[in-house]
Amino acid sequence: MTGRHVGMNRDYWNGMADDWVEPGRLAWGSPNVNWGIWRNPETEVQMLPEDMRGMDAIELGCGTAYIAAWMARRGAKVTGIDISSGQLATARELAAEHKIDLTLIEGNAEETGLPDASFDFAISEYGAAIWCDPDLWLREAWRLLRPGGRLVFLGNHPLVMACTPWDGAKCEPTLHRPMRDMRTFDWSEVEIDPGGFEFNLSHADWMKLFAEIGFTIDGYLELYAPPDNTRDLFAISGTWARDYPSEQVWKLTKPL
């Protein structure tokens, strides 16, 4: 069953697609792999296998598909899926420009329609990691992965959600929202910078869900802004993010 958030987020990202053409172009053309809003380097975050030759990989919520391109350059056969036709138009244009062969599908990462056990590796940077229902997209990732396959994803740290004022202003060193039963965040009608519909969980609830599905946890990272950062990005205060983690990375495996 398709939730209300799916159509809401499709409309939001189609409306935003033009704003992400140039960032997508820059990421496709960059010689470096960097992650998240603070561009933490792959040498520190280590989200991708160094050698992906012979691997089937999928990016869940691929947007302009620059991560799919990074994986293809490491030797993987890559599929990207995204709900936004506008984002995928940019991805297809850049794939043709860079002569990189990707399979790009317009669809919902919560129910891809792809065959069981099709992939060795799955990844989401934001994308499905925050815009899709975790009860659905994580189970779909499990279904898509072969035994021994890995899932890594990066999204907002739950502390960001707890410290964001109810009007949508930038996060503060004050708790505004409860951690208990944290799950859904409808930003469509907030006063400041209205957006789409996001999901997040407390750490304990993430781990409970992984265990229910069957994933084992290989690693977890909390990401901060650089120590000298003063820039505000999106709803994240640049000074706040020097002292508090604004992003998280989960690294999971589907056991053999």
From TrEMBL:
Residues 59-153 form the Methyltransferase type domain. GO terms for molecular function: S-adenosylmethionine-dependent methyltransferase activity. Coiled coil: none annotated. InterPro entries: Methyltransf_11, SAM-dependent_MTases_sf. Pfam families: Methyltransf_11 (PF08241). PANTHER family: 2-METHOXY-6-POLYPRENYL-1,4-BENZOQUINOL METHYLASE, MITOCHONDRIAL, METHYLTRANSFERASE. This is Methyltransferase type 11 domain-containing protein. It comes from Actibacterium mucosum KCTC 23349.
